[in-house]
């Protein structure tokens, strides 16, 4: 059967066969043109003898077969014309059987049989039965397959189907079905036999050739599906059992896989639904090497699509217990195939879950049952390390999220977190990211501490690194992206009930603090923000009958904040972050009139400044934050405020660079004069700060002159002048007209002013501002009128 020659030899054999074929076809056509039946049969038999070759591969043989098919169509037309001219079709049917070789004889017999059926001189079923039995004479797999394919092709439009012109009292659709089934059975036997001919070393080649020929066998099933008379009853009682019997009995991996897939693809979905138990019952009987995973997955996909397009059939799915039958069948298949890979088992349950979610979206118990069955198959196998299997497991776990667009529903599936346990650390992170993206995309609000606890268990791959193997390196960009997604998630965890919200942030704290120092700088800030938002929602303690003894109070939340921020300085590159959070909390305590708490937060911020913040630029920024925050504080008494402002001014004077010292010191002047608070209005100390800043500016200029041989910039003096003007406008008695005029004169006398274009422009802008204020009039304008520039 298998061609032993090379590709070049095959081409030569095909060319030689085609040449002989063409020559005999020419003579046959000439005989047809001259109405010479005897010669037409002679040359057609010689032409068809070329199909007796065993030297060609299936692909090349098909080329020759198609030439023969085209010529036989012409011969069939000639036969039909001969009968019209008075030739007996019965004699013609007998005459073609005189051909010397059996293969040409059977091709001619099928052609004459086609004409015989058309004349209706005998029941179609008798002729079809005779043809299908006669074709048993060819047992060579390749030649037999093509012969029977020809028989199927020419008889296709002559089957006694319902509504067909060949249907009658003696011919019924049952006869048509019997003919097609018999031809299918014989073709499948020939097809399977190809696998066992030839040397073992050519097994792959044979399998490839069989794959090329599979459509010849499958077309029989397609013909059956197109018969009008094959209704559900006939399909259930006759067609399906006979086809499955042949599939199971052939015991061939390739044939079983292809033909099971054919059944699923060619017959209506309604038939599959009503015969599920029969179809699924054959699955465990297939060879262990058959890819039953793909077959069942396609069946479930077909049924899911059927339900989606025809919602009125959904009750039938419950009626026939489709889910239970599929679930049991999958279990039996896995049990029958002891060596089934994990990938196949997971894929089957993934397909079943998708089927369940599409067909029975309201039955969460079904979805949970699928997950439970999956766990049963995975139990005892530990973490899954097969890349494709873990990817499929992620697909399975993602299915409920994609269907419901609501993580809360997934949280109701008790087996969901148990399935996630079979993922390794990397894929747990992947799955956690999928869950968080679903929450973000659908803006899902998770409003109870219990659900938050369940959610955090699901995404612990992102928030906890205690179980990660040693040496596992995670890309820094990926890690940051993952942690930023966790930070965004924290803002989505919200409850309108303050007590429940306090429980939520406590649950978050318990999980996030175990996440390791690298994660804290991402996860603690949003948690702090959530807690501060909760404080703003609380009633005033005077309005709360329980006061500080209430289950949720500002005091308790501030204590909570202190605990979580304390964890930050231990994290790398996080002291600056903790410093900022302490100041934010201090400002929140200020709004709640909690002086001791606000003072404690400031104290912690000062400790971090002294012990952890050593970079000069970071110190400048930190001081600006301290001064800005302290300026807004009104809760402190005189003693506490003096302590804190004294510390701030002390830090200012200790900065490394003189210009930084100067700016920090004049910024401290704002700490001693707040318009809205008469108790914080100390003009003397404001003036003292400004004079001290001026002294530092002088010192900075002298140092620049000594080091570089040129006087330093006058910009600092102009900045101090602007501070003088600010407090002059506020009406501070200590900032007099003379002090302002003195500053202006000092700046104008500086030699470096004319050489520094930016400083000159800065001064010009300041003087224009003063002139504008004069023209503006009013109380402030009157003050500026006194200043002589």
From TrEMBL:
SUPFAM superfamilies: ARM repeat (SSF48371). It comes from Raphanus sativus. InterPro entries: ARM-type_fold, Vps35, Vps35_C. Pfam families: Vps35 (PF03635). GO terms for cellular component: cytosol; endosome membrane; Golgi apparatus; late endosome; retromer, cargo-selective complex. Its main location: cytoplasm. It comes from the Eukaryota. This is Vacuolar protein sorting-associated protein 35. Plays a role in vesicular protein sorting. GO terms for biological process: intracellular protein transport; retrograde transport, endosome to Golgi. It is a peripheral membrane protein. Belongs to the VPS35 family. Gene3D superfamilies: Vacuolar protein sorting-associated protein 35, helical subcomplex Vps35-C. Keywords: Cytoplasm, Endosome, Golgi apparatus, Membrane, Protein transport, Transport. It is found in: Cytoplasm; Endosome membrane; Golgi apparatus, trans-Golgi network membrane; Prevacuolar compartment membrane.
């Amino acid at each position: 059967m298998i061609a032993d020659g090379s590709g070049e030899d095959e081409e030569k054999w095909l060319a030689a066969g085609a040449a002989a074929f063409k020559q005999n076809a020419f003579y046959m056509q000439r005989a047809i043109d001259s109405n010479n039946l005897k010669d037409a049969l002679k040359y057609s038999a010689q032409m068809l003898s070329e199909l007796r070759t065993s030297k060609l591969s299936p692909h090349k043989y098909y080329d020759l077969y198609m030439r023969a098919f085209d010529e036989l169509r012409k011969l069939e037309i000639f036969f039909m014309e001969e009968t019209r001219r008075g030739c007996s079709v019965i004699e013609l049917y007998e005459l073609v059987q005189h051909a010397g070789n059996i293969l040409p004889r059977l091709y001619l017999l099928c052609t004459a049989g086609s004409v015989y059926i058309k004349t209706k001189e005998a029941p179609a079923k008798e002729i079809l039965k005779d043809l299908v039995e006669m074709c048993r004479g060819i047992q060579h797999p390749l030649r037999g397959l093509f012969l029977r394919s020809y028989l199927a092709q020419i008889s296709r439009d002559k089957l006694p189907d319902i509504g067909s012109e060949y249907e009658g009292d003696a011919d019924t659709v049952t006869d048509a079905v019997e003919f097609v089934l018999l031809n299918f059975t014989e073709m499948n036997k020939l097809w399977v036999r190809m696998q066992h001919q030839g040397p073992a070393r050519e097994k792959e080649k044979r399998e490839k050739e069989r794959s090329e020929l599979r459509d010849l066998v499958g077309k029989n099933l397609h013909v059956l599906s197109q018969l009008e008379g094959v209704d559900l009853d006939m399909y259930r009682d006759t067609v399906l059992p006979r086809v499955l019997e042949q599939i199971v009995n052939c015991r061939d991996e390739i044939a079983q896989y292809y033909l099971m897939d054919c059944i699923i693809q060619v017959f209506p979905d309604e038939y599959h639904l009503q015969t599920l138990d029969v179809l699924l019952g054959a699955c465990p009987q297939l060879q262990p090497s058959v890819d039953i995973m793909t077959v069942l997955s396609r069946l479930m996909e077909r049924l899911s699509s059927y339900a989606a397009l025809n919602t009125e059939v959904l009750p039938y799915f419950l009626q026939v217990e489709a889910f239970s039958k599929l679930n049991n069948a999958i279990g039996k298949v896995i049990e029958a195939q002891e060596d089934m890979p994990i990938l196949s088992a997971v894929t089957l349950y993934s397909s079943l879950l998708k089927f369940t979610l599409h067909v029975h979206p309201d039955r969460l118990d079904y979805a949970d049952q699928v997950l439970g069955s999956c766990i049963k198959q995975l139990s005892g196998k530990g973490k899954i390390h097969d890349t494709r299997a873990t990817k499929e497991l992620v697909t399975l776990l993602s299915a409920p999220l994609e269907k419901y667009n609501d993580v809360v529903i997934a949280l109701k599936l008790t087996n969901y977190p148990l399935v996630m346990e079979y993922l390794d650390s990397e894929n747990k992170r992947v799955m956690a990211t999928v869950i968080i993206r679903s929450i973000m995309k659908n803006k899902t609000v998770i409003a109870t501490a219990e659900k938050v606890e369940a959610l955090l268990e699901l995404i612990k791959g992102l928030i906890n690194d205690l179980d990660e193997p040693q040496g596992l390196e995670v890309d820094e960009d990926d890690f940051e992206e993952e942690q930023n997604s966790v930070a965004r998630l924290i803002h989505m965890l919200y409850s309108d009930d303050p007590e429940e919200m306090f429980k939520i942030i406590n649950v978050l704290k318990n999980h996030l603090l175990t996440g390791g120092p690298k994660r804290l700088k991402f996860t603690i800030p949003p948690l702090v923000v959530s807690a501060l938002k909760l404080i703003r929602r609380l009633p005033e303690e005077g309005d709360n009958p329980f006061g500080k003894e209430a289950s949720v109070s500002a005091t308790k939340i501030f204590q909570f904040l202190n605990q979580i921020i304390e964890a930050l300085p231990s994290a790398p590159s996080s002291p600056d972050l903790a410093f900022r959070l302490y100041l934010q909390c201090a400002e929140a305590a200020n709004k709640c009139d909690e002086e001791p708490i606000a003072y404690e937060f400031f104290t912690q911020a000062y400790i971090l400044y002294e012990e952890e913040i050593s970079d000069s630029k970071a110190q400048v920024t930190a001081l600006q934050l301290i001064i800005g925050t302290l300026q807004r504080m009104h809760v402190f008494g005189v003693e506490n405020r003096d302590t804190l402002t004294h510390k701030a001014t002390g830090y200012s004077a200790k900065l490394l660079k003189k210009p930084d010292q100067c700016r920090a010191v004049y910024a401290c002047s704002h700490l001693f004069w707040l318009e809205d608070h008469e108790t914080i209005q100390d003009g003397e100390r404001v003036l003292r700060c400004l004079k001290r800043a001026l002294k530092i500016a002088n010192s900075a200029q002298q140092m620049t002159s000594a080091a570089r041989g040129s006087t330093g910039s006058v910009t600092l003096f102009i900045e101090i002048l602007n501070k003088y003007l600010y407090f002059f406008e506020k009406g501070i008695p200590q900032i007099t007209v003379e002090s302002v005029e003195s500053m202006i004169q000092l700046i104008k006398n500086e030699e470096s002013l004319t050489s520094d274009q930016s400083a000159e422009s800065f001064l010009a802008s300041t003087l224009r501002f003063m002139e504008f204020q004069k023209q503006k009039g009013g109380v402030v304008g009157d003050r500026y009128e006194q200043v002589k520039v």
